[in-house]
Amino acid sequence: QQLKSLITALEVDVVSTHELPEAYAKDFPWVKFHLRPTKEKLRQLYSKQSAWIFSSREEGFGLPLLESLACGTPVFAFEAGAAKDVLNHNLLGKVIPNHSVERMVDALAEQLLGSLRNSIDVTHACREQALRWSWAHSFKAFEAVLQDIRDKNKLLLSPKVYPSATSLMRA
């Protein structure tokens, strides 16, 4: 109910890679639809939001989660892909279990009413979390796992055959 009362004051942007029915624009005049925006436009859209809704139900990883966090915007996502890990177990947004639309609406109403986005600390925490998922960080973590396996003699890797990921990055 609270979200419905806010609906006329909301500024909603919908980003899609697929054409949406024209009826959407008529049925939801308060929504701006963006079809395949440029990277710069997407960055602008992420940055101005109070929350980013990631409604994918099947996702391999979910790069938009990191893009939103990198712009300082908390994410609300259905439980898919790396949402739980990326969102730091609900500290930087909310992971909605069971793809429940009702729970998503409740979480968004709480977000909008609480104005979490206005907190500089949350914006900073979102950006810091996105940086933890950089390629360099991921490579170091992967290399550490390989080192651990090698050290525990679970897998014998010859340094001559498998140079470290770090040396590969320098090449």
Question: How is the topology of this model organized?
Answer:
Layout (H helix, E strand, L loop, with lengths): L1 H5 L5 E5 L5 H6 L3 E5 L3 H10 L3 E3 L8 H8 L4 E4 L4 H4 L6 E4 L4 H14 L5 H12 L3 H17 L13 H6 L1
Parallel strand pairs: 1-2, 3-4, 4-5
Helix pairs in contact: 4-7
Structural write-up:
- There is one protein chain.
- The chain has helices at residues 2-6, 22-27, 39-48, 63-70, 83-86, 101-114, 120-131, 135-151, 165-170; strands at residues 12-16, 31-35, 52-54, 75-78, 93-96.
- It has 171 residues and is α/β, with parallel strands linked by helices.
- The strands form 2 sheets. It has a 3-stranded parallel β-sheet with strand order 3-4-5, sandwiched between helices. The chain has a two-stranded parallel ribbon with strand order 1-2.
- It is elongated and about 60 Å long.
